[in-house]
């Protein structure tokens, strides 16, 4: 782990946007920002794991006041260096427990970031933390993959998702603990560089129970940001939970 910045310290932050370039494509990012702006309903938005500002900056550009929480100063430095970066407030800390001032009509976690919390307790704490930040009627949105266990034949724990001439990547699963990791091998200047990021995968139904424990209820679930229906074959989901009107933190 990279000291106080967790697993997203300077070596990762320096190439994060480049390595995630596909997630910045207008056809990917546009629908996400559209949906989040609509759900914010003119109120404030809280992004957990704000990172380099991929979503926060265009959302703020739509007139939504955005505040972010992130552990990595290196990632936030990239956000600050971008046009409009000073418009997004950021609190450095663990988004499962860190509190910020005020109420929000929207909180969101995108791009599998809920899995960065590597224990069930931390994921439960995250829902409770969000519920404490939301105004009555506020929404909590998570974008995350459905665990790819259907890809695992008996006796196998690895699922490759990138195979190139000089780059390889694979996920490792432990179905007894729901622990997983994404592992990257890259040839740089003739030498192999290995990086590992630990996660905890979580099922949609498990997230719904965490929401109930926090006093939230499921409002919508889609396959993607364009509201494609969620089905048995969906490999990811965008889920929305609501804090019932009239309830306070």
pLDDT average, as an integer? 96
Low-confidence stretches: none
Structural class: alpha/beta
* Beginning-to-end CA distance, first to last residue: 34 Å
Fraction of helical residues: 10-25%
Count of separate DSSP helical elements: 7
Q: Give the CA-based shape.
A: globular
Report strand %: 25-35%
Q: Please give the number of β-strands.
A: 11
Largest sheet: 7 strands, mixed
What does this structure look like?
By secondary structure, this protein is of the alpha/beta class. Helix content is 25%, strand content 31%. The protein is built from 7 helices and 11 strands. It has helices at residues 10-13, 16-19, 26-40, 56-61, 73-81, 120-133, 204-213; strands at 45-48, 66-70, 89-92, 104-109, 134-145, 158-163, 167-174, 179-188, 191-200, 217-222, 236-242. The strands form 2 sheets. A 7-stranded mixed sheet has the order 3-2-1-4-5-11-10. It has a 4-stranded antiparallel sheet with strand order 6-7-8-9, with no helix packed on it. β7 and β8 form a beta hairpin. The two termini are 34 Å apart. The model has no long low-confidence stretch (mean pLDDT 96).
């Amino acid at each position: 782990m990279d000291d106080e910045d967790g697993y997203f310290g300077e070596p990762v932050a320096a190439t994060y946007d480049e390595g995630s370039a596909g997630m910045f494509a207008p056809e990917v990012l546009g629908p996400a920002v559209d949906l989040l702006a609509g759900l914010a309903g003119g109120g404030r938005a809280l992004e957990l794991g704000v990172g380099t500002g991929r979503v926060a900056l265009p959302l703020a550009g739509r007139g939504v006041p955005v505040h972010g929480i992130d552990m990595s100063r290196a990632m936030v430095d990239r956000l600050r260096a971008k046009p409009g970066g000073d418009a997004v407030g950021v609190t450095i800390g663990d988004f499962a427990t860190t509190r910020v001032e005020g109420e929000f009509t929207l909180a969101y976690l995108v791009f599998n970031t809920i899995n960065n919390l590597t224990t069930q307790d931390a994921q439960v704490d995250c829902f409770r933390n969000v519920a404490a930040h939301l105004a009555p009627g506020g929404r909590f949105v998570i974008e995350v993959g459905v665990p790819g266990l259907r890809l695992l034949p008996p006796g196998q724990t690895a699922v490759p998702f990138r195979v190139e001439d000089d780059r390889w990547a694979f996920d490792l699963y432990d179905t007894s603990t729901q622990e997983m990791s994404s592992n990257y091998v890259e040839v740089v200047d003739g030498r192999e560089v290995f990086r590992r990021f630990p996660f905890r995968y979580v099922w949609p139904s498990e997230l719904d129970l965490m929401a109930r424990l926090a006093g939230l209820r499921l409002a919508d679930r889609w396959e993607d940001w364009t509201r494609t229906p969620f089905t048995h074959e969906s490999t990811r989901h965008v889920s929305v939970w609501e804090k019932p009107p009239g309830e306070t933190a």
